[in-house]
Amino acid sequence: MSAPIVLSADHVTRRFGDFTAVDEVSLRVRGGEVVGLLGANGAGKTTVMRMLLGLLPVSSGVVGLLGRPPNRERRRSIGYVPQNLGLYRDLTLRENLAFVADAYGTSVPQLPDDLAPYADRLVGQVPLGAQRQAAFVAALSHHPAAVLLDEPTSGVDALARARLWDTIRDQSDAGVGVLVTTHYMQEAQQCDRLLLMSHGRLVAQGTETDVIDGATAVAVRCEDWTSAFAALSDAGLAATLDGRAVRVVAASPDRVQAVLGNAQVTATLTAVPATIEERMLMLDRDFTHSGPDWQT
Ligand SMILES: Nc1ncnc2c1ncn2[C@@H]1O[C@H](COP(=O)(O)OP(=O)(O)OP(=O)(O)O)[C@@H](O)[C@H]1O
After folding, report:
1. pTM of the model
2. Architecture of the domain spanning 5-208
3. pLDDT tens per residue across span 52-84
4. Of all protein residues, whose CA lies closest to atom 17 belonging to ligand 1?
5. Higher pLDDT, 252 or 104
6. What architecture is domain 214-295?
7. Is ipTM beyond 0.90?
8. Comma-separated ranges of CATH 3.40.50.300 domains in the chain
């Protein structure tokens, strides 16, 4: 039997004045799964999370927390780490944890060993990685059924990030449903399922293979990679640089060849599978242009 649905949205829309920040989004998160919510800045991810929690009213549609409309009581069964972490900056780490335990009526959680040196420091005097870890401890202290994490590892080093992901995996192994936003594609690959948002809409979902959906990018190999990159960018193509490797999405190899030819840059072109990030870029361009310039 499948695990229960802990978070749900059905055709949820949120408008701010004339602006539609979230447009007809439907999603489900079940206990035990880690679902990644991806999208460019401003795509609507935080707004979705805040509506799921009932912290922001929907303009239309229905959200569910543990199968019912969100309310204060059901929020007590949820852990939430917002982008700003939600810690009180005028309290120490230890005081923050005591405060949260008091609010939930639970015992004060044990500080992990690596946080012990910071226990009695004010939040603002603690490195960001330790703040994030403490926010996790606080959000998980009452054994929630679902956890919402808004860019939980932003700005922390690789080791701290790996630790936080260990904690996320421990939670899902224990049956907790996790919805997590991230800008790190390596983290997206650790999710069981992905939801891609662009301009308020859900534009793709499923496994990494599902969301990439066979899309390809053009890899450009040439000596003069700086001229290649400049010419492609000047022509309005979506060119990216990874070291000296130039790649282009949403453009045919013929179009890339034509632009490079005009700029008198000699290059070898290969169609390669797109990454998640490139797929997101393509879907964003599909929205902002009338269509991908693949055909042009
Ligand atoms: N209270 C508000 N009033 C007006 N516009 C808002 C409000 N909250 C969010 N928005 C707008 O809604 C859009 C979606 O914002 P949201 O914070 O959900 O995006 P996001 O995908 O979480 O972005 P980021 O990755 O930068 O956190 C943005 O254009 C934002 O400016």
Report:
1. 0.89
2. 3-Layer(aba) Sandwich (3.40)
3. 999 999 999 999 999 999 988 888 899 999 888
4. 46
5. 252
6. 2-Layer Sandwich (3.30)
7. yes
8. 5-208
16 CB under 6 A from ligand 1?
yes
* Cα–Cα distance measured from residue 178 to residue 194, given in angstroms and rounded to the nearest whole number: 12
Residue 84 beta carbon below 6 angstroms from any ligand 1 atom: no
Ligand 1 atom nearest the C-alpha of 49 is 18
Tens of pLDDT along 212-249?
999 999 999 988 899 999 999 999 998 998 888 899 99
**Ligand 1 touching residue 21 (CB < 6 A):** yes
92, two tokens:
């120490």
> Is the C-beta atom of 182 inside 6 A of ligand 1?
no
What's residue 85's pLDDT? 86
Tell me which residue of 275, 201, 287, 292 sits closest to 238, measured CA to CA.
292
